[in-house]
Design a protein that fits this description.
The chain is α/β, with parallel strands linked by helices and 396 residues long. A 7-stranded parallel beta sheet has the order 3-2-1-4-5-6-7, with helices on both faces. The chain has helices at residues 10-26, 38-44, 59-65, 67-84, 95-107, 128-134, 145-150, 162-172, 177-183, 200-214, 232-236, 248-253, 264-271, 286-295, 303-308, 321-326, 343-353, 358-374, 380-395; strands spanning 2-7, 31-36, 50-51, 88-92, 111-115, 137-140, 156-158, 191-195, 221-226, 243-245, 257-261, 276-280, 335-337. The chain starts with a strand and ends with a helix. The radius of gyration is 21 Å and the shape is globular. The longest helix has 18 residues, at 67-84. Helix content is 49%, strand content 15%.
C-alpha cells in the first residue's frame, strides 16, 4: 500500500518516523513518500522530497517573506500526491501547511489522516471546518482533546503522547552523568539548561532573555540546547554560553533547572523531571501581550499546565491574568509571556525552583500528575500505525 507523510518541523519528523517504523512492520511492502527530516529518512530508507529545513516558517510575516519557497513546497507535495495516489495521506502537526495539503488530497479522493491534532482549542478555531471537510481520522496526543473536539462534532481519538515513550526510552539509555559531562566538556557544577526553541525567530526572541537570566546565577553551569537544524553561528551571535546540539532531552535530564520556550520541549522537560520556567517573548509590548491572551482560548499556553493544570477549562475566562503570569492558581510551571518575559520576572520564578523547597517540590509533584494523565497501555505511534493500516485495508 502507498502512504504519503507530511511533517514540517523537527518534532514532527521524530513522531512521524516512529509511525513509519510501525507501519512497515504491519505492511512490509509499503511504498512511502514524505516531506520531513533525517529521522523519517532513516525509518523509510530514503531521503525526503523536501527537508523540513525548507518548510519551518513561523507566523504570517515569516511565511510572507518566504512565499515563493512556500508555494514551491506546495507544488512539490501536490505533484507527488497526484503522481503517487496514496492510499493514505498522513499529516503530522504543522497545520498552516498541512491543512492545505489535506484539501488537495481529499479532492483527489485520498484518505486523509491527521496525527497530532491542530491546537484549535488555543486559537484559530475556525479551522475546525477544514478538519470536518477534508480529514477522515484525527489522532490526538493530548487527553483533553477528544472531549473538546467532540463538543464540536468532530471525532478525535486519543492515541497516547509520543513524548512519553520517547522520553522514557531516551532516559533509560542515558549514560552516567560523568560520561555526559566529559563528552561535552562540562564540569560537575549544577546545570542550568537554556532551551530557546527550534525556529530562528523563537531563538532570536528568547535566547537573549534567557542569557540575561543565566548571568544572574554564576554558581551554575549554563548550557544552551541547540536545535539540530540551526547553524551554530546563530547562537554565537546571541550568547557566549556553550551550545550542545541534538541532545536537548539528555541535557534537561542532567540539569538542575531549565528555561524553556513554550512548545513540545516544555512537556519533555516535565517528563525528564527538570524544574522549569516557560518563556515566550515574540515582541515585548504590553498591548501585544493583551492581544495574545485575548486570542488564546485557554488559561495556559504550556503543555504541562494544559494537561495537568487544576483550573477547570470551563472557567478559563475568569482566570486572573496576573495569576497566570506569576505561575499560581493551578499552574504546574510558571509562564512568562510576551512583555512579562523579562530577565527580572523570569529570574523571580527560576530562583524559587533551583533550591530544594516548596516551589520545586510542587512542580515535581505536578509532573507526576501529567505523566499519569498521559499514560496509555501501548505507544502512540503503534496505535496510530495500527489505526491507519486497518482503515486502509478496509478501503481497498
Amino acid at each position: 500500500m502507498k502512504y504519503f507523510f507530511s511533517a514540517g518541523e523537527a518534532s514532527g519528523d521524530i513522531h512521524a518516523s516512529q509511525v513509519i517504523k510501525n507501519l512497515l512492520q504491519l505492511d512490509p511492502g509499503a511504498e512511502i513518500e514524505f516531506l520531513g527530516g533525517d529521522e523519517m529518512a532513516t525509518a523509510a530508507g530514503h531521503a525526503p522530497l523536501i527537508h523540513y529545513n525548507r518548510m519551518a516558517f513561523m507566523g504570517f510575516i515569516d511565511v510572507a517573506r518566504h512565499l515563493p519557497k512556500v508555494l514551491e513546497n506546495f507544488r512539490v507535495a501536490e505533484n507527488a500526491i497526484r503522481r503517487m495516489r496514496p492510499d493514505a495521506v498522513v499529516l503530522v502537526d504543522y497545520p498552516g501547511f498541512n491543512l492545505k495539503i489535506a484539501k488537495f488530497a481529499k479532492k483527489l479522493g485520498c484518505k486523509v489522516y491527521y496525527y497530532i491534532a491542530p491546537k484549535l482549542w488555543a486559537w484559530k478555531e475556525y479551522r475546525i471546518k477544514q478538519l470536518r471537510k477534508y480529514v477522515d481520522g484525527i489522532f490526538s496526543i493530548l487527553p483533553f482533546e477528544p472531549a473538546w473536539f467532540g463538543e464540536r462534532n468532530v471525532n478525535v481519538t486519543y492515541v497516547g503522547n509520543p513524548s512519553v515513550e520517547e522520553v522514557e526510552r531516551a532516559i533509560s539509555a542515558l549514560p552516567p552523568r560523568k560520561e555526559f559531562l566529559s563528552r561535552h566538556g562540562l564540569d560537575d557544577r549544577p546545570i542550568l539548561a537554556l532551551v530557546p526553541g527550534s525556529r530562528v525567530g523563537e531563538i532570536k526572541a528568547n535566547l537573549p532573555v534567557m542569557d540575561a537570566v543565566a548571568r544572574r546565577h554564576p554558581d551554575m553551569q549554563t548550557v544552551v540546547a541547540g536545535a539540530p537544524s540551526i547553524d551554530r553561528s546563530l547562537y554565537a551571535g546571541l550568547t557566549s554560553f556553550p551550545v550542545i546540539q541534538a541532545v536537548t532531552l539528555e541535557l534537561m535530564a542532567q540539569s538542575r533547572a531549565a528555561l524553556v520556550t513554550s512548545g513540545t520541549a516544555s512537556l519533555e522537560c516535565a517528563l525528564a523531571d527538570c524544574p522549569q520556567v516557560v518563556c515566550y517573548r515574540a515582541v515585548g509590548w504590553k498591548w501585544a501581550h493583551d492581544i495574545f491572551l485575548h486570542i488564546l482560548k485557554i488559561p495556559y499556553c504550556s503543555l504541562p499546565n494544559l494537561v495537568g493544570g487544576k483550573i477547570d477549562r470551563a472557567t478559563r475566562a475568569e482566570v486572573n491574568r496576573e495569576a497566570i503570569r506569576t505561575g499560581v492558581r493551578g499552574c504546574i510551571v510558571p509562564e512568562m509571556l510576551v512583555h512579562n518575559c523579562t530577565p527580572e520576572n523570569v529570574d523571580v520564578q527560576l530562583s524559587q525552583l533551583i533550591p530544594d523547597g516548596a516551589a520545586r517540590s510542587a512542580q515535581l509533584d505536578g509532573y507526576k500528575r501529567v505523566r499519569m494523565l498521559l499514560h496509555t497501555p501501548t505507544p502512540a505511534a503503534e496505535n496510530v500505525a495500527r489505526l491507519i493500516y486497518q482503515n486502509v485495508k478496509r478501503n481497498i
